[in-house]
Design brief:
By secondary structure, the protein is an alpha/beta fold. It contains 11 helices and 8 strands. The strands form 2 sheets. The chain has a 5-stranded parallel beta sheet, with helices on one face. Helix 7 runs parallel beside helix 8 and helix 8 packs across helix 9. The longest helix has 19 residues. The radius of gyration is 21 Å and the shape is globular. It starts with a helix and ends with a helix. Bound molecules: zinc ion (2 copies). One zinc ion binds next to helix 4.
Amino acid sequence: MDYSAIDEKFMRVAIELARRALAIPGAGEVGCVIVKNGEVVADGFNESELTIDPTAHAEIVAIRKAARKWNDINLCRATLYCTLQPCGMCSMACIWANIGGGIDEAQLLQQALEIENVNRMLADTSRPVHVLRSVELNLDPRGQGDMDEKSLARLDIVLGCFHSALRKKEDQTQRYLAALRNPAIQILGHPRGRIYNFRKGLTADWSQVCNLAAELDKAVEIDCYPDRQDLNVELLKVAKAAGCRISLGTDSHDPSQLGFIDLGLAAALWSGIQPERILNFMPLNQLSKWIANIR
Ligand SMILES: [Zn+2]
Ligand SMILES: [Zn+2]
């Protein structure tokens, strides 16, 4: 896995913490720091023996501190550094806390510069490919994003997704309507938030959601990741009836996962989505024109 100079810097802070813990009787020599926007917001070392608590691993101690500090159980866009590979309990705690090592505005700008370079190189090849600048924007349950709108406007295309309050039982139509009305986004990503064998996903009046998407000329996504397949065939038929645009994404976390696109293509075919409605099939100039129109 790749790591940067920034990662190394914070890993060193965690190592220093583990070293200091060595001097404290009963403390375990594991250090952990939680970082957001380039700053350490919470830290911890293993306190299990010290507090006679088998769950007081360094990561849990740090996560609890960070959540209390922000008065929020959602620590998205924070990164956790630990001197030991997190155990099963701590890995799950990171998932519950939404710690995913998200991207901030500064990193987004850095990424834009890198993409610009890549595009320049690709333009000179015989089969030019153009890389788009994009981000999966984290939406809160009110449909609002957590990034500066000016930074988002500089991107080519923005996908908005819910990553919190995904186990609500009651109807969530309103949050979807709010998300679609958010001017910063063009695509509503993995709409239901369903993950096979883990989370059932949210319920909503999907025809109302897709009708608004059609009215605003925005797209809903087929997240092709096998555990997600979100939207699925059943809901794609609703989207087809509404006539909204469809975007196919693999949610790849690694190049080997790009092949998941086949699952989305199959679902689109099965549901009879017309090719003209699929963003991935649009030529670049048409795609850019569409985005400019709805911005
Ligand atoms: Zn642990
Ligand atoms: Zn997501």
